[in-house]
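#lab-general

N.A. 3:47 PM
ok so I finally got the sequence cleaned up, no stray characters, all 530 residues accounted for. can someone with queue access submit it? mine expired

B.Y. 3:52 PM
send it over

N.A. 3:53 PM
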Amino acid sequence: MRARAAALVAALIVGVAAPIPAAPAVAATPVPLVDSYFDWLLASYDGVRNGLRRDIEHIYGNQFTVAGRPCSPASPCTVGGPRQSTAACTSLQFISVYLDQRAAYEQRSLSSVETGIIDEFANAVLAHRLTKNPNAPKIFDDAVAGTTDGQIRYFTSFGNAACGEALLAAHQATGTPGYLDAATGIGEFLLRMQDPRAYYLSYGIHPFVDGLGQPTTPPGGYVDQISSWSNLYSTISIWNLTAIAFLQRLETAVAPSDNRYGLSAATARQFLSTGLQAGADWYTFDFDSPTTSQNRVVAQSAYSADCRDNQWHRKGSCTYTNGQIAGGTLGTDMIEYGLAGLYDHERQLNGASSAAAAVATLYTTYTSLPGWHTASASDPLDCVDDTASGAVDPYYPPDNQGATPSGDAWDYDPHLSFGGFFRLTSPNVNAEAKYYDIVGFGVLAELRKELVPAKFTAGYQRLQQADRQDALYALLDRSLVAMFLPTRDTNDLDGDTDTTEYLCKGTRGTLPIAHNGLGILKAVGYAGTR
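B.Y. 4:20 PM
back already:
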């Protein structure tokens, strides 16, 4: 372990990450996966830590050149993905928990190098925060913006919950009071997103109105998003159940005399869990906004559905049939985050057994839904093997995530997640589902270990089989071989003004890596990986 720490110090001093080969050989004694994830998140490309980006893409093409270098399958070109605070916050949480557990395992305190790493990531996260002006209070004071690109910044409840969790983890690992203060500021932002009325009535706007158009109280969840123009968007999504887990944890850490964080979490749980029970993933509220041209309260369509009716829905549909939600598509990640948030909240209050009971029926319901793998349904799924083309087999055979993988190597893996995008109607839009399979293992790790331990074990073993350098590519394909998907050079990466060129692209996502690492640390523990 000390040799590993010394190597880490050397890497930080040199500041240059080793190149990432396209398909490296599997080491005889592979580094434990959580260590591999930690190393990758710390590595830098173009002077920026991988963990501070959303993703890094590797590309190649038949005649594709970037910065004067041909991009080949053996030596693909690297393109840094956008910076995003949610990805950076999830990385910060994983790194904080990882270093804290590692130090405990080695029976020592964190070193100055380790606390410096946490501080570096925390400072990068806090650079996205809008510092409040006491003379001009705003609803998004102390919130963390989604990105720093462009003049308009967006603040989401889901992303801020992730950042709040990360700052609490950084505080636990380092004891730095400022991290707890910043997490508390995010908690206050979420309270305002639960009831934003005071910030809009001065504009003659009622953010919430009933069926008769009269002002009413908020339903209890956290509004999805607000922008730096003070645009309040009219949707509430079930993945905001992550916020109730964070606020309950903040309640324990801060213990305010009025119990406001715990009460907020309880209210939001009651409302948001009804969406899961109804088989929906987003709610759209009605509002009275005579000044929408001034960008105060605006309707945000979800997959082209703009309902504004104070009801739960699925993506792309406002339809109800015989009083029941009809049509639309369920987004897997929203359901996974929602189930995990509900489980986490209940476990904090009443323990693991009670938490498992709270989500068991919901988990069974969702894993029983019919679904289709919609990734490149008619295109080749591998840029090299053009024989693998045509429609992809449906996800659910009779085994429904059983012990034996079904289908063929081009289906997504039932052991990692419960199903990519859920298509409750015939799939007519291609979407990359495998990313969600990978994220899903980490998000649901604790829950699945409690509810379906054999399936958790199978998924964890699948992860452990992946080689260390290419883990995220490998997980995209059941054969554990790096897989690239075909696309076009729409962004003119090579600068030749041709945006129709064929290229192949593979993505290493920060969120899948950080969430997988967190899931392993929570379900197995650092000691369990040794």
